[in-house]
Design a protein that fits this description.
By secondary structure, this protein is α/β, with parallel strands linked by helices. The chain is built from eleven helices and 15 strands. α6 links the parallel β11 and β12. The chain is globular. About 45% of the residues are buried.
Length: about 425
């Protein structure tokens, strides 16, 4: 064998995750079809001995932290233990040559895209999003101008609506995007706390129209054994310190007017609402997964007088009525503006009822929307809801003579099925 060729074969293009940009949302680990990605309390890492470069994890990443590569000698590839100890990516060793071409993928890699249930592209008519304008090294500062509890005082879920104002600092956002919050202080090992991700609950023109502000929907995490493994996307869950309390969620829920918060982002370039006026929104959420749905609904409400004809249908679940955020304002919305369906799973004396149950009860109307090429489906909430919702969509489609496999693929390809579960 030619010596030059043999040397090239020993060089690989190693896939790495940037710990400075990663917001620990767990999307990459959930998406990877071969379990090459794992994490500890500090970092998300890629096992070079398992990774086959299928790229399934790259499109869903909201920050781009996943899209990093280094040319290394195979014998000197960075181990999982190496990566767990990083606070920043190592520089590229310029002495290492370009690796050989990636070999043809095996059958397992070829079906990797099928593990991604939702769209990895935005709706065709969505506005252009700005992402990563502010980073760990150059964050934005926002002032708290509002913080109030959304749920009943007697309810076990303490959910807050928090308004952050950026003053004269440009911070453009769209419905469906998120921001990262950097809580102050350090963890037990002396490292600065990791950033936590929260979905924006206000429309693009601000919580208060015409002001440079935005709102978040945050659930205070106070439960035994919460280890904070990065599942705080849009709801404040997973922000634990290992002792049961969420570091960032408690920090945010305790903020007072005038406090200053360190923010990075915005993030997200796919979970966006369509802009064409005849588009329909089928929204399915639980708990604080309502944040992006509130943003989309409020944007449409403010534009109602412009004559937009698109329909809004919402399925919203919570344990009890008292734990459902935005219950009062939601009930005051006109019935001819939004078709609201609530589901409560822990109401005393009543059978458990979940969003998928409510969807099946409205199967005819859901099927009508699914069959319309202008319908965009958004699902946001706890990971446990995803299977039930997808099964409900499939059964409704099939019972109304819709070809579900073909419809599902079309929804994904056209940016009309978006899942954000944590």
């Amino acid at each position: 064998m030619d010596a030059h060729i043999e040397t090239r074969i020993e060089i690989i293009r190693q896939h790495l995750i940037d710990p400075e940009i990663c917001i620990r949302c767990n999307t990459c680990e959930e998406t990877c079809p071969i379990d090459a990605i794992t994490h500890d309390g500090a970092n998300y890492v890629v096992n070079a001995e398992v990774c086959n470069g299928c790229m399934a994890c790259v499109p869903p990443c909201p920050t781009g932290a996943i899209d990093n590569w280094r040319n290394v000698l195979r014998s000197e590839a960075y181990s999982v233990d190496d990566q767990f100890g990083w606070e920043a990516l190592p520089a590229q060793n310029e002495a290492v040559s370009t690796p050989v071409e990636v070999p043809a993928q095996d059958d397992e890699a070829l079906v990797a895209s099928d593990t991604v249930r939702g769209s990895t592209v935005a709706p065709w008519s969505a506005a252009r999003p700005y992402v990563q304008l502010y980073t760990h090294k150059a964050p934005a500062l926002a002032t708290v101008v509002g913080n109030y509890r959304l749920t009943d005082a007697a309810a076990p879920s303490d959910i807050h609506h928090i308004v952050l104002d950026f003053g004269a600092l440009p911070f453009p956002v769209l419905e469906g995007q998120s921001i990262g919050v950097l809580p102050p202080g350090t963890s037990a090992d002396g490292r600065a706390h990791h950033v936590r991700q929260y979905s924006i609950a206000s429309p693009r023109d601000g919580e208060r129209p015409g002001y440079n502000n935005l709102s978040l929907t945050v659930k205070r995490v106070q439960r035994e054994g919460d280890n904070g493994n990065g599942n705080g996307n849009g709801n404040g869950n997973g922000n634990g310190n290992g002792n049961g309390n969420g570091v960032c969620s408690n920090y945010l829920c305790d903020l007072q007017k005038g406090d200053v918060v360190t923010v990075i982002g915005p993030f997200g370039n796919t979970f966006l609402m369509p802009n064409h006026p005849d588009s329909h929104l089928l929204m399915i959420c639980t708990g604080t997964g309502s944040a992006p749905m509130r943003a989309m609904t409020e944007y449409r409400r403010r534009r109602r007088a412009t004559g937009e004809t698109g329909k809004l249908m919402l399925f919203f679940g919570a344990r009890t009525r008292g734990e459902l955020p935005y219950f009062g304002p939601l009930m005051s919305l006109p019935k001819d503006f939004i078709d609201t369906n609530l589901a409560f799973s822990r109401t005393p004396g009543e059978a458990k009822r979940y969003v998928q149950d409510a969807m099946r009860e409205r199967a005819d109307d859901v099927a009508q929307l699914l069959g319309d090429g202008n319908t965009h489906v958004y699902v946001c909430g706890l990971r446990g809801m995803e299977d039930g919702v997808m099964q409900a969509l499939e059964s409704i489609a099939r019972s109304h003579s819709l070809d579900w496999p073909a419809l599902w693929e079309r929804l994904r390809r056209e940016g009309r099925l978006h899942l954000e579960t944590y």
